[in-house]
Every structure is written in C-alpha cells, then in structure tokens.
Amino acid sequence: MQSILSHFHYTDPGILEQERSKIFRQLWLFACLSSTLAAPNAYASLSLAGQPVLIQNCNGEIRAFKNQCPHRLVPLQAEGFGQSPMRCPYHGWTFNNDGSVKSIPHESNLYNFSSEEREKLCMKRYAVEIVGNMIFINLSENPLPIEKQFTPEILDKLRDISTHFSAQTAHITVEVDYNWKLQYENVLDYNHVPYVHPQSFLPLLTKDNSSNLTKKKIEQPSIPFFPDVPSTLNAQSYHTRAALKIPPQPWHSMVDRYGEGGFFENFFLFPNVNFNCAEGMVFKIEQYEPLTPSRTAVRFTMAVAKEKQRIRALPAILSGCIRNDVNVLHEDRMYLERLQKGLHAGSPKVHHGQYERYLISFAQVYEKLLKGERPW
C-alpha cells in the first residue's frame, strides 16, 4: 500500500511547526537519565521540540524548567550536563527550587520592580515523570497521563531494565541532513540491515559472528511479521527481541548482566526514541530532535550494566560502544541524506510492504495528531 505521508511531510517548514506544536509539545519526551542528576544541583540542559529545557536536582527532587532567565531570556545552564545552582550568568539573578526569583543583584537601584511584577518573574516549569532511571518531560500546560502514551507493560519493562544501567554514562550528539521521521522509520525497518549494515551490525545477528561477510554471502535475518497494528497512541511504543551474540570481552564478567543474555532488545518509544539493550550488557538510547525539516540532531546516551567491581577502563569501553553505534548511524546516513535530497514537489508516495505494519501505523497516528485528534 502507499504511505499516507507525502514529500511535504519531510520538507515543509510549516509541517515542522505543526509537529512541534501538536506532537512534541503534547507528548511525553525522554530527556535524560536520573542517575546523571544524583548530586545536589546537578543538571541537564537540552532542546526538546525546539524549546530550551533545564532538568535540575532541586534539593533531591528532579524538576524541569524552560532554560531561560525571565529577565533577558539567557540560558541559566549552558552545558549539556553539570552541577551548579540556578543562577543566570548574564546578570547574576538566582532562582529558588520552584523557579521563582531568589535574588537580583542591586535590585532596588537598577530595577525597581513592584511586588506584583517581581512575582511574575518566574521560570516556566514543566511536568516530569521518572520511569525507573529514565526522565520524561511534557511541555504541555495540560499534560496527558503518561499511561495514555505508553502501556503499563512498556512502563514496567522500562522501569526494570533502566535500573540496571551503570552510574557512568557517555553522551554524544550527531547532526544529520534529513528529516527526523526518516531516521525513526529507518529503525522500525529491520529489512534494511543486511544491505546497509553487512559488516557492522549484521554479523552480531548471525551464529558465527563472521566479520568478513560480503553482500554475496548475506542471508536474510529473521524478520518479525507483525499483525495489523492498532492506530492508537500507546500501540506505537513496543518491545522486540532478536537473537544476538556479542564477541566476548574481559569486562563482560565484571558487570551484572540484565536478563539471561543472548538477545538484542529494542524499545521503540513514540514519537522519537529507539532504546536498545545488547545481551543485557550494553544499553543505548537514541533520540531524534528535529532542527529543520531537513536536519536532525541524533542524541546518543550510552551505558553498560552495573559494575560488580570497578572497571578502570569503563570510559574507554563506553567510548568504544558509542563509536560503534555512531558508525552504524553513518551507514544509514549515507542513504537517508540521498533520500532527503531527492524529495521534491513531484515525488511519489512510497510503497509499504506487508512487514511494514508499524511504519503504516506510525503514519496513521502521526497524521491524527497533526489534525488535533486524540488517538487514545
């Protein structure tokens, strides 16, 4: 069948603004791991739906704000991660844990705010849900219950698996020149793996871990055939599992593996997260933040399973893991950037095969949300 989406869903600036308004600013979005904010005044700052967001440890409670000082709109925290009180670096304003103004240097001489004006000088606050070790933020004034977006089964699974992460994590952001939906559709599509990743990812799905596969030797991996997927919001976030074998490394015996191992577990979290676990030892969260209709920031968060003993080489291990996943992204990138460049007013709609049920359902729910419908 043909997709209900057309070229302009991937190229039109007006569509991007609708996505931000009707999808990203209405749904729960993954922000960061709570383990990265364990220390007092620890923070994370990032862009969500085009909005600057600050997540801060406020006296042991995780809170989220718009990362803008109400005075001149300068970000309070400029780095991705750090540890400092909420203080504007531009004019020295400081803020309480609820986002209200705590102090303004030389306030009476320089500003002369009335009590009513001063009370309004408050940072905008956002709703927070912590699921295990994962922090989700909702930018809406009236956020929907997170259970409307994710099923209880998915939430329970996320709570369980995310508590197995090591305390130390690695982060990197890669910007690519194509629409965010192309990347999300790509990770929903298992069928491209033998053709795009024959040397990187495919060998891990084979019995012998052969590293010298050529395209002539490629065997089709087992592709799950999904039944019709309901076009409801919570049906878009789901879990899959496939056999996987990582070549053994010395550090594997030094971590507390999640589950029984031997599997690659994927969590597709609508609208823009692919979270996976390799053999219960390596965890990656990949998130797609739209920058323009044809440019996307891909954010990686990488962890290994909790250490049973100190691993001195853990920074190097995390660096190697994240480098491998970035390499896989670059393999996809070559094709997706070509695809994006070829989209134009005369581009035909794509054709979906039977196995692409989740891509079809994704498009249906996406379109409902753009129309302002409530598919839950």
Description:
This protein has 2 domains: 1-25 and 151-376, Alpha-Beta Complex (Naphthalene 1,2-dioxygenase Alpha Subunit, Chain A, domain 1), CATH 3.90.380.10; 28-143, 3-layer Sandwich (Rieske Iron-sulfur Protein). The protein is globular and about 70 Å long. 26% of the residues lie in helices and 25% in strands. The protein has 376 residues and is an alpha+beta fold. The chain has a 7-stranded antiparallel sheet. It has a 6-stranded antiparallel sheet with strand order 10-15-14-13-12-11, with helices on one face. Strands 6-7 form a two-stranded antiparallel sheet.
Give descriptors for this structure.
376 residues, alpha+beta, Naphthalene 1,2-dioxygenase Alpha Subunit, Chain A, domain 1, Rieske Iron-sulfur Protein, 2 domains, seven-stranded antiparallel β-sheet, 15 strands, Ring_hydroxy_dOase_asu_C_dom, 2Fe-2S, iron-sulfur, dioxygenase
Short description:
This is Aromatic ring-hydroxylating dioxygenase subunit alpha. This protein is α+β, with helices and mostly antiparallel strands and 376 residues long. The protein contains ten helices and 15 strands.
